Amino acid sequence: MIPNLNIVPFVSVDHMMKLVLKIGVERFLTELASYIEDDFRRWQAFDKTPRVASHSAEGVIELMPTSDGEVYGFKYVNGHPKNMREGRQTVTAFGMLADVHNGYPVLLSEMTILTALRTAAMSALAAKHLAPPGADCMALIGNGAQAEFQALAFKALLGVRKLRFYDIDRAATEKCIRNLAGLGFDMVACATTEEAVEGAGIITTVTADKQYATILTDNMVGSGVHINAVGGDCPGKTELHRDILLRSDIFVEYPPQTRIEGEIQQLAPDHAVTELWQVITGAVPGRRDPAQITLFDSVGFAIEDFSALRYIRDQLISTGLYQELDMLADPDEPRDLFGMLLRAATATKTGHAAL
């Protein structure tokens, strides 16, 4: 543990990259998925609420809070697809953990990289319970910032080694193939979505445009596949034709949020879905037969970010990859906050005139 309660450990982007590389990307994803799975097994212990979203014409800014009664966590995250045209990230994020019993923060961390990792870990964790056994070929539709993480998570957790890529921007596909070269994949760049899904037991859609889109049409999806729908994650943003949903068994994180943001915003509010935590705990079955189409309608939920922050915090002492932030006021007497300010003024010899 960090010895000084008034000092908050901060994991910067540089520290996060060094931490991931020190652990190894695939091991990191596997261990992170285990943390998420452990927290989903104690689902009932958490406060749960749909994320608080502020929408604009350009994108969305969201806060994602939760608590297990001992630790409180939140993530700030945005989604602005236009940013790419300006040389900026579509998604940026940071997060915090705090001690419920005194309210003191115990971790502040970048979460732009961490969100990409936890999204991929969550996708592969869901597929572990839902994908056809032995599926080793995945179509990746949308080859942006999330794609390589998805590929490595599915390799680490399910043994997927064949990848079929498609993106409307050929340069994005070439970037993925270049980045994943030498990491044990058999990769094919495809000219169309239809070509990409041929022979794939798993289909991952992870596109960014904030619109009702039809990335997959019903005729592209045969029986027995698992669909990992990642890109539809806010109101007015979907990727799948409605007919695919009607043919699929749909699994979600938290229905009150997914019905607002996920693919199922296209369906009636009472359309039957299964909560993934119930599958993970064994309360209900996941994949039941070879012909079943399973769909993970992934929008991302606060408990997954809580798990990711919890995992990062557990790595700090062994790695030392953090810096100390003097973030909390610490007066000699808790009620004398102004006196602390006066003493600081005296110490710097600025006097009352500078206050």
TrEMBL record:
| Keyword Transferase (UniProt) | no
Give this protein's Gene Ontology molecular function annotations: ornithine cyclodeaminase activity
Q: Which domain of life is it from?
A: Bacteria
- For this protein, what is the EC number? 4.3.1.12
Q: Which InterPro entries match?
A: NAD(P)-bd_dom_sf (IPR036291), ODC_Mu_crystall (IPR003462), ODC_N (IPR023401)
The protein's UniProt keywords, in alphabetical order, are: Lyase
Which Pfam families is this protein grouped with? Answer: OCD_Mu_crystall
- Which family does the record assign? Belongs to the ornithine cyclodeaminase/mu-crystallin family.
What NCBIfam families does UniProt report for this protein, alphabetically?
Answer: PRK07589.1
- From the Swiss-Prot or TrEMBL record, give the protein name: Ornithine cyclodeaminase
In its UniProt entry, the species of origin is given as: Mesorhizobium metallidurans STM 2683
The primary gene name is arcB
